[in-house]
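Postdoc handover notes: sequence design on the structure in folder B. Input C-alpha cells:
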C-alpha cells in the first residue's frame, strides 16, 4: 500500500473511533514517506485520541523540526508531556500558549492540561480568561465549578457556577448530572431529584458514569420511587458488569 492509502485507512479508523488502529496505519504511512507532514499530523492526532502520549510526543517533536507547530499542537504536546510525568515542561508550554493570544476554546484545553498536572489555581485562571471571551458559555461555568472545588473554594461557589451552567444549557445531561451529584453529596436529596427528574428515565441510556447512576438509584430508592430506582440499578449493571456478576 502507498503512503496515501495508509493515510486513508488511518483516517477511516480514526473516524470510526478506533484510534489505536489509526496509529498503526499512520505509522505505516510515515515509514513509507518519512517527510510526509500530513502523516505525522494524523499520527499525532490519533495518538492523542488513544492517550498514547509517547507516540504523540514523538510525532509532534518530529513536526517541530521542520516547521513551527501551531497553538493547538503545542497544547496537545504539553498535555502529552504531562501524561508521561514531565509536569514542569508541560506547565511551561501551556503557560507559553496561555500568555499569547489563545482562543477561549484553547484556554479551556489549557485549563484542563494544567489541572491534570496538579495546577488547579492556574487552571482556574485560564478558565476565567476563557470566560472573559465567552461569558455566556455553559462549559466555562461548569469547568470553573470543578476547578473552584479543587482549589478549596466554598462549595456554594461551585454550586452557583454549576446552576448557571444548567441555566444556560438546560438540556445538557452532563451539567445536570454534575449538579445532581454535588447536591447528593451535600445531603440535599429533594433538590437533587428536581435537577435530574426530567432526564430519568428518558435519557438514562446516555449516562455512562457508573458511579453517577448508582447514586441516582439510591436517590430514587430513598424517595420511594422504586421504578426509577430499578431502572437506574439496571443501567448500573450494564455499565459495571462485574457488579452484576458479583451479585449473582
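Designed sequence:
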Amino acid at each position: 500500500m502507498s503512503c496515501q492509502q495508509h493515510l486513508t485507512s488511518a483516517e477511516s479508523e480514526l473516524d470510526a473511533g478506533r484510534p489505536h488502529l489509526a496509529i498503526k496505519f499512520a505509522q505505516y504511512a510515515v515509514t513509507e514517506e518519512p517527510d510526509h507532514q500530513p502523516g505525522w499530523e494524523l499520527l499525532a492526532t490519533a495518538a492523542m485520541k488513544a492517550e498514547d502520549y509517547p507516540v504523540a510526543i514523538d510525532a509532534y517533536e518530529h513536526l517541530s523540526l521542520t516547521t513551527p507547530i501551531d497553538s493547538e499542537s503545542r497544547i496537545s504536546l504539553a498535555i502529552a508531556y504531562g501524561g508521561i510525568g514531565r509536569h514542569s515542561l508541560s506547565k511551561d508550554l501551556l503557560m507559553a500558549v496561555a500568555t499569547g493570544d489563545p482562543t477561549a476554546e484553547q484556554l479551556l484545553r489549557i485549563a484542563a492540561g494544567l489541572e491534570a498536572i496538579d495546577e488547579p489555581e492556574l487552571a482556574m485562571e485560564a478558565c476565567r480568561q476563557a470566560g472573559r471571551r465567552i461569558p455566556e458559555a455553559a462549559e466555562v461555568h461548569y469547568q470553573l465549578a470543578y476547578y473552584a472545588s479543587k482549589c478549596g473554594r466554598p462549595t456554594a461557589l461551585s454550586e452557583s457556577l454549576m446552576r448557571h451552567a444548567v441555566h444556560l444549557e438546560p438540556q445538557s445531561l452532563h451539567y445536570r448530572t454534575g449538579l445532581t451529584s454535588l447536591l447528593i453529596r451535600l445531603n440535599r436529596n429533594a433538590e437533587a431529584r428536581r435537577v435530574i427528574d426530567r432526564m430519568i428515565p428518558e435519557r438514562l441510556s446516555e449516562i455512562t458514569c457508573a458511579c453517577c447512576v448508582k447514586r441516582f438509584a439510591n436517590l430514587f430508592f430513598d424517595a420511594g420511587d422504586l421504578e426509577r430506582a430499578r431502572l437506574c440499578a439496571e443501567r448500573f449493571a450494564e455499565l459495571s458488569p462485574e457488579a452484576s456478576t458479583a451479585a449473582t
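Context for whoever picks this up: Residues 111 and 123 are 4 Å apart (CA to CA). Don't rerun without checking with the PI first.
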